[in-house]
Amino acid sequence: MILQQIIINNFKNISEVKLDLSPKINCFLGNNGMGKSNFLDAIYYMSFCKSFNGVNDSMLIKNNEDFCIINASYLRRDSAENLALGITRGKRKSLKRKGKEYQRLSQHIGAFPSVLIAPNDIDIIRGNSDERRRFIDMIISQSDHKYLDLLIRYNQALEQRNKLLRENCVDHNLFLAFELTMSMAAQYIYEQRCKWIDRLSDIFNRYYNTISGGEETVELRYNSKLSDNETSLETLLNEARRHDEIVKHTSVGIHRDDIDMLISGMTIKRTGSQGQCKTFTIALRLAQYELLREAVNIKPLLLLDDIFDKLDASRVERIMEIVMSDTFGQIFITDTNRTHLDSIIARTAGEYKIWEVTHGTFSSINSVENETE
Length: 373
Fold this sequence. Notes:
The longest helix has about 40 residues, at about 170-210. Helix content is about 40%, strand content about 25%. Strands 2-1-4-5-6-7 form a six-stranded antiparallel β-sheet, with helices on one face. It has a six-stranded mixed β-sheet with strand order 8-12-13-3-14-15, sandwiched between helices. By secondary structure, the chain is α/β, with parallel strands linked by helices.
């Protein structure tokens, strides 16, 4: 899949930009806070219908403006596709594909896949279990709409159960209704997480070993109370209800599961250096890319947001060798260091484009177009 052109109006600090993009390498150079990451966020939004920073939609609209618009033209499975996004303050956002508006945005997830590698990926390691569940849920949801639908149902039922707990409800049947919905959804979610984490682990290990030079061993383990085959979530919820009534929230369920992340047998959150943690998260994202590519039979867009900081030269070199391979498709790279970008460009004989970004404006620096493409 190729993003051929993007037009952005009033998105964060970007007032107006129209870029025709390279099918392979697109580089964005500039100091921090100039709008490089905002540009990648606009591309990300067209894949996931939300910002990678998790901010409210109204915060995406440029200050003193009432709306923002993104129009993106793709070549997807050899067919031209267009996505048009409109966000207006105080109104429902609109996403149209080929001029037809989605009634449910969840239907769009996975159709235009992308993978972002960014500095805040460190939260996957150092954040709470919510970050790690969000990571695996994002991978699965882009290729399994049943999973996404059941995850939405589970979270809705969870919210209702928590509301009953906060309101000191004593109606046993009301609890049972929501707990049955949660239990039915949880079994499928649990099974898919087990399967995907097993698949992810093998690919992740390969990428980590390549980037690190094979100097460390890493491991992923899925941690869930449903791992006991004789225990259903319905049983766990029933057993925990008295406790939950005291603490006013649901203390068991797949929303409490975690992924243990280990390096040399130790929790990387506690023992990993900055370089090891950065390598760990980059390997996770590259594994995510490969899994997604295989699942949807499309090469996702790869968004690399200032990823080379805190890595030694040898690890940077190995990462560049990986992403320049035929395994990966169109790539978008931001950096404050021209040297990194020049090194990447030197590796490709194909087409590339570079822009300098200053206060939300984009100026072409250099480009090479491969006339055979």
